[in-house]
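Sanity check

After download, print the first record. It should look like this:
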Amino acid sequence: MTETTIDDGDRVPVLLEARDVSFEYQPGRQLLEHWSAQFPAGTMTAITGPSGRGKSTLLYLLGLMLHPTGGDILVDGVPIGSRRDSDRSHLRAHRFGFVFQDSALDATRSVLDNVTETALYRGIARKDAAASALHLLDRFGVDVSPHRKPGQVSGGQAQRIALCRALLNEPAILLADEPTGNLDPATADIVVAALQEHARAGAAVIVVTHSPDVAAASDREIEL
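Expected structure tokens:
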């Protein structure tokens, strides 16, 4: 696995890397061109820049949900470009967590089922996944019945539920797209503190944000 040196001089593993990545939606419409960056364990990185520069698209490329039109994404030092879709799905389930801008909860399923669904993909027993989910919901103050549907909770609660879902598997790589964009300051502070704590535990946390406060709370900032 590739390593890099961080500010204090320590060598740490690079969990995720974009190497010379380009992406275009259609010929002549280039969003990213020969873009490279490394995301080491134990760091929280803010990706900033004006709207339309491809920040969310970059997050989907890093999360293996889009294929770059040039270059490659490396996970744990291994190039992913030639991998089958089933292999990419397996990596997403086992190494990644995602917090989407609009929480992306399934309106037809309960709060508890929304949190536990990714754990079940990994073969974790439903009872164990539920116990972990209830612990996280309590930790982040989601004071609603776990049997409610997402349409019966507030926007701030929905985003904290999405955070619980992302953290349930203790992912080595956590990607968040504007996770505080629609939150009140108190709820935003809870989300940012959780992302910082997860990075301190050894994960690579990458946050797309327009918020100067979130960028300031990160270990480093990359502007597109």
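If your output differs, re-run the checksum step. Summary of this record's structure: The mean pLDDT is 90.
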